[in-house]
Amino acid sequence: MESDSGERGLTGGDRDAVLHAVSSAVLAVTRHLSVREVLQVIVRSARTLLKARYAALGVPDDDGSFAEFVAEGVSDKQWDAIGPLPRQHGMLAAMLRDAEPVRLPDIREDPRFEWWPSAHPVLKDFIGVPIRDADQVLGIIFLSNKRTPGGFSPADQDLLTLFAAHAAIALTNARLYERGRELTVVEERTRMARELHDAVTQKLFSLRLTAQAAASLIRDDPERALAEIDRVQRLAGEALAELRAVIVELRPAALDRHGLVETLRKHVALLDRLYSEKITFDAPEDGHACGLPPATEVTVLRVAQEAVHNALRHARASSIAVRLRLPGSRLTLEISDDGGGFEVDGPTSRGLGLVSMHGRAEGVGGSLRVASEPGAGTTVYLEVPA
Fold first, then answer.
1. CA 104 → CA 123, 143, 190, 263, distances in Å?
2. pLDDT, tens only, 168-226
3. Which residues of 269-286 are buried (b: 16+ CB within 10 A; e: fewer)?
4. 152 phi and psi, to 5 degrees?
5. Residue 112, SS3?
6. Which of 66, 73, 141, 170 is buried most deeply by CB count within 10 Å?
7. Please, are residues 386 and 260 in contact by the beta-carbon 8 Å criterion?
8. Is 201 exposed, middle or buried (0-12, 13-18, 19+ CB in 10 A)?
9. How much is the pTM?
């Protein structure tokens, strides 16, 4: 659709406002590294940028449907009534095929329009732009029902096209990040599987042989049988310790499914239900902490778990607070309680896992500090590169 250059004349102030709006929208998208988050922020930013009532983004699959479909302006109740994700037909199919922007005063009057479910919102003025990486169409972003009179203008089309070009970069980066993250997780799990085999299997094999020896001796030589049973207990303890050491290093599957912020939120909520102490969690609303390297995410999660466990077990606290913050290029984790406190350099601190927590922090280029004194509660501070 041709642009009318007469409609897009902008004053210097208008142009600055537009560029600022595009810049803000692009920054909002590029802050996120999860593909799903990127899609959601693209749609939300485009809807705000062009002042539309409805916005959606579809990522096509190879089976005539959409692998992802994200919308803004439609409630969960409406989605349930609308039904399954749309297939590649009508205007969506035409946009995928032609890979060109579309701007219409009323989508219902276009011959490419076919139908929508009865529960679908009524769309009128319409604008759609492909999100492209070279010749590949990564998705389609489209908006409808502009909140100001007159529908979408050629300037709106230029603006959405510019935004879609930046959104393509963010979406490609997110996909590459997730793919790299998956490979890292696979490599880590393979390494852990080898460690489990090497560290524990041999110990369990010895344990079984020793138990069999004790069983065969119990009638004829009870004294030797008791010695073998003692050895069984020792081997079982060693195997358990080695197994725990390996398991502690495993990356929790919840981090891959939910990311760090949501995993911590769910963990704290569970502990709050299980214990009488009041346990709270506070983190930025946008969940930006999901951009951490996998090893750093594990460190933050494990330190939080260890510090909360210490507070529950030793502090005799009535409340425990877990906080995540992102000042600049650093992430800070703070776990504080109102319990009895302790002398940080005293003998009672040795059983609190502080050496392990310090080691974890240093292993990812971070630092850990503990502030406590008898009768004044305890706060654990972890700072890592974000």
1. 11, 11, 53, 44
2. 887 777 777 667 666 666 666 666 666 665 556 666 767 777 777 777 777 788 888 78
3. eebeeeeebebebebeee
4. -85, 135
5. coil
6. 141
7. no
8. exposed
9. 0.46
